[in-house]
């Protein structure tokens, strides 16, 4: 198909896909999939969090891992940016620091796929950013 | 922050934290008038009056509160460096408008960078917020709204990689069409 330049093109493409396969976009249940939160405050963005987030968005899908990748605010580990929080289904969240693309790859291959821990874990009694009172 | 897009991604965080459900990002660039303007408007909680005055001073904010931090000071710095300035209008309970002005041809004006990726990240991470992106150049204008897109496609969420990729392509094509300056597509690799 030619380039998509309007909402109408976008819709047409969705419909073409739909007739071939029954793909419906529905919200995933966050509890049953891997959740990756990328800290994206000033400190994170300045250290490259955007590229890290794009990497996870792209690679988790490419490697067939059901996951939700979102951004979050500053987790308070500005010295270790980019930082990410990974929560495997039914497990406590783990925070990784100094996440460049190489480490992001390791996190997917080792921690997310097999549960094996990799370097860069921030070893504190960490609460999920959502539970933490500001 | 190497590009204006990264600054925008950062400033939009303030709006998200201010519980806005509509965030508008507007870029008006004019080569003929030598102006480059970024306007970010939200309908969030606004900035309290006593903080507003000093909001671009990084040392005024207490770190535990993290109301603003370094985001606005950095944008102000970049704007002033490029012959412009930063203006903040905010009314508690109504929302906030941040306007950054630059001289288009100033050597220290950062390029726009990967604005498409910025919009995609914001849209993907915050499904409940309507993001409006409008870009005006000497050659025309383009606008995108995440809410309008959702309604038009009759989907509950835009969080789907194939769809996000197509949306990125659509915004990118339109920005090329109006000859938006300083675009890059993805900063990774």
Q: Explain this structure to me?
A:
The complex is a heterodimer of chains A (134) and B (189). Chain A is an alpha+beta fold. Chain A has a domain at 30-114: Glutaredoxin. Chain A contains four helices and four strands. Chain A has a four-stranded mixed beta sheet with strand order 2-1-3-4, with helices on one face. In chain A, helix 3 (49-62) packs across helix 4 (101-114). Chain B has one domain: Histidine kinase-like ATPase, C-terminal domain (Heat Shock Protein 90), CATH 3.30.565. Chain B contains six helices and six strands; from the N terminus they run H-E-E-H-H-E-E-H-E-E-H-H. Chain B has helices spanning 4-17, 49-52, 71-81, 115-125, 146-153, 161-177; strands spanning 22-30, 35-42, 85-91, 95-103, 130-137, 140-145. Chain B is globular, with a radius of gyration of 16 Å. Classes of the chains: A alpha+beta (134), B alpha+beta (189). Chain A binds chain B through residues 3-7, 9-11, 13-14, 17, 25-28, 40-43, 45-46, 50-51, 53-55, 57-58, 61, 68-71, 73-74, 101, 134, and chain B through 1, 6, 9-10, 13, 17, 64-66, 69-71, 74, 114, 117-118, 121-122, 124-127, 148-149, 152-153, 155-164, 166-167, 169-170, 173-174, 177, 186-188.
List its salient traits.
heterodimer; A: 134 residues; alpha+beta; Glutaredoxin; four-stranded mixed beta sheet; 4 helices; 4 strands; 36% helix; B: 189 residues; Heat Shock Protein 90; six-stranded mixed beta sheet; 25% strand; globular
User: Widest sheet of chain B: strand order?
Assistant: 3-4-2-1-5-6
The CATH architecture name of chain B reads 2-Layer Sandwich
Give start-end ranges of low-pLDDT stretches of chain A.
none
Question: What's the Cα radius of gyration of chain A?
Answer: 17 Å
Counting copies of identical and different chains, the oligomeric state is heterodimer
Biggest sheet layout of chain A: 4 strands, mixed
Query: Fraction of residues of chain B in helices?
Result: 25-40%
Q: What is the terminal separation of chain A in angstroms?
A: 48 Å
- CATH class annotation of chain B: Alpha Beta
